[in-house]
């Protein structure tokens, strides 16, 4: 009577991965991960830490060391951070199953590390990863990595790293936004700066990129998180429990209504069947009475004929 409940079409396992750019302390990682988690519906953010050489926010020497490391990576050097990210992404893919997705967020130098690490991932692993880069020191495109489930490179139009990523700068100058993903999404997306300062607009949680991170969070929830879990994460378990109980009560009432309707239909069926039987019986009795009268009439006629003879 009732259709079998189907699994939510997007209820497959998923994971949020993140790798940072330069000048991120462990405290910065913790705070940024919390912000990303909130934008993605309070899901856990599993990050691969790209450590900084800076001891304090004003440590110029440490900042120069970070830039020097990024420069060597730009020339293809496989550093410890690259190896760690390969291991990190392999672990995340192993958690989600054959139909799951890892949404990997990479910012600044983190995109360059992702570019180098991607060369050490198998095709099967890449097919289960969506790569979302913000102000990347390298751009991941279908030309180099055709097997990723999704590739998108966001750049503020005043991002300073456009000066070192030639294919991104070419896309901005020519308007040719590279290849397209399966959903028709361009590989390069250029954003109007909101901070009017290249350094501010380059920040992952700055005024330009933060809106897009939030948009990616909404997309993730709509695509990968069942409605019930989204409700719980937004309103908490008590409200979700009350809603669930109301749903169960409404479902119980609907079932009772259906049972009553079915019982009424069955009753009417048997009443109609009994009525038909009575009509048939009456008809048979009437036919039997007519038959008896006919036999009597024949007998009378026979008697009269014999008497006359």
Notes on the protein architecture:
The protein has 309 residues and is α/β, with parallel strands linked by helices. It has two domains: 14-235, 3-Layer(aba) Sandwich (Rossmann fold); 237-309. It is built from ten helices and six strands, in the order E-H-E-H-H-E-H-H-E-E-H-E-H-H-H-H. Strands 2-1-3-4-5-6 form a six-stranded parallel sheet, with helices on both faces. Helix 9 packs across helix 10 (237-308). The longest helix has 72 residues, at 237-308. The N and C termini lie far apart (77 Å).
Outline of the structure:
Helix 3 crosses helix 4 (about 110-120) and helix 9 crosses helix 10 (about 235-309).
Overall domain count: 2
CATH class descriptor name of the largest domain:
Alpha Beta
Number of helices: 10
Helix residue percentage = 55-70%
Q: Multimeric state of these chains?
A: single chain
Mean pLDDT: 84
Total number of beta strands: 6
CATH fold-type name of the largest domain: Rossmann fold
Query: What's the shape?
Result: elongated
The fraction of residues in strands falls at: 5-15%
Using brief descriptors, characterize the structure shown.
309 residues, alpha/beta, Rossmann fold, 2 domains, six-stranded parallel β-sheet, 10 helices, elongated
List the helices and strands and how they pair.
Blueprint lengths: L13 E6 L6 H14 L5 E4 L11 H15 L5 H17 L4 E7 L1 H10 L4 H4 L2 E6 L15 E7 L9 H9 L13 E4 L6 H5 L6 H16 L2 H9 L1 H72 L1
Helix pairs in contact: 1-8, 3-4, 9-10
